[in-house]
Amino acid sequence: MTYIVNENCIKCKYTDCVEVCPVDCFYEGDNMLVIHPDECIDCGVCEPECPVDAIKPDTEPGLEKWLELNRDFSEKWPNITQKKEAPPDADDFQTTTDKYEKYFSAEPGEGD
Question: pTM here?
């Protein structure tokens, strides 16, 4: 098992989870984070830190797409190990649906 980041993170990109990760397995995209599934030690400390419920164990049904996306982009995006300010409009996107289709960006973030 590993944890993944799902579409709830898109356009919100709160980084509370990054701060508690003991193995620094988060990677930063332009408008979301991902977890490297081979680096995650399945400790679960990140899951309750996410204010938008974007972190889930990969054992939950229907998350195969997100496991693959996390794996793919964690190889392309820079590592992030320190909490940053959320985007100024993050709160506006907390309840938005279909964020992947509308807003996903494959561009990398800044990382640390």
Answer: 0.95
CA distance linking residue 63 with residue 75, whole number of Å:
19
Architecture of domain 3-83: 2-Layer Sandwich (3.30)
Going residue by residue through the chain, which has 112 residues, state the pLDDT in tens, using 9 for 90 and above.
Answer: 899 999 999 999 999 999 999 999 999 999 999 999 999 999 999 999 999 999 999 999 999 999 999 999 999 999 999 999 999 999 999 999 999 999 999 999 999 9
Residue extents of the structural domains in the chain? 3-83
Q: Minimal CA–CA distance to 52: which of 36, 33, 70?
A: 33
What is the 3-state secondary structure of the chain?
CCEEECHHHCCCCCCHHHHHCCCCCEEEECCCEEECCCCCCCCCCCHHHCCCCCEEECCCCCCHHHHHHHHHHHCCCCECCCCCCCCCCHHHHCCCCCHHHHHCCCCECCCC
